[in-house]
Amino acid sequence: MDQVLIDTHCHLNDPAFESTLPDVIERAGAAGVRGFIVPAYDRVSLKRTADLASLYPGAILPSYGIHPWYAGDNINYDILLSYLRRQDTVALGEIGLDFAPDAPPEPTQIEIFTRQLNLARELNLPVLLHCRNAHDTLYQILKGYWGGVQGVMHSFSGNYEFMQRFIDLGFSISFSGSVTRKRAKKYHRNAQAVPLDRLLVETDAPSIATESTVASAVEPRHCAEVARKVAELRGIPFEEVCTRTAGNARRLFRLP
User: I need a labelling partner for 177 at 20 to 30 A (CA). Which of 156, 209, 225, 255 fits?
Assistant: First the structure.
């Protein structure tokens, strides 16, 4: 396959991939997926992410951050900063807000989130943003960083109006397996409307199912399924989605 895709959010650092990673990467390559942005999400995954980036230089592209689910942990920002300053770091994340009932308290999440946004601005790194049930609060915070922080709304789950507001702040919009589902009308509308220069694709493997595959079996190779669905929804060639999304990823994350 000549077309190249970049999976802009996949957790190859998840223990689920520990024994199968070489095969997973080989299958991804056969599907045209040649780059993998792999975000850390808690203290333990920081080292695992760095180790994988060293094993697969130029293919596994590391990002470091603390996910809102772990906002209640004892976070050592000096250690986080040491990873963010590594030469191969492409982004800060996965960070954001998650106001689900079982998540850490909202004030705790907001404090951790803003501290990491400050680091991203200081280090001039794009951010990978998680958001669930918190789009308005996230937007209000990001407004304060307008022009100082760029990044991507990972696996965007908000409505069209919020998508436009985040785009106006300069953020890109990434679609995962959710957009492939037949009844996912909100995601379909967003994928049809997002400007091509802000469009990214991802899998969030192994967390989000596609129409064809349960979440636990999703791998970066399924990024091609996401891209094909986006192409179908927009009425454009699959190859154009590959070219545009890979180009957008290279520009946002400053890849060669």
Answer: 255
- Tell me 133's DSSP state: S
Query: What does the H/E/C string look like for 33-47?
Result: EEEEEEECCCHHHHH
Could you give the number of structural domains in the chain? 1
CA distance 15 to 12: 8
For the domain that residue 163 is a member of, what is the CATH number?
Answer: 3.20.20.140
Measuring CA to CA, which residue among 225, 141, 152 is closest to residue 194? Answer: 152
Decide if 89 contacts 118 (C-beta within 8 A). no
Q: What's at 130, amino acid-wise?
A: H
Q: DSSP letter at 173? A: E
Domain of 182 in residue numbering reads as 5-253
Nearest to 17 by CA among 59, 49, 43, 50: 49
What tens digit of pLDDT does each residue of 10-50 get? 999 999 999 999 999 999 999 999 999 999 999 999 999 99
Q: CA–CA separation, 54 vs 185, rounded Å? A: 40
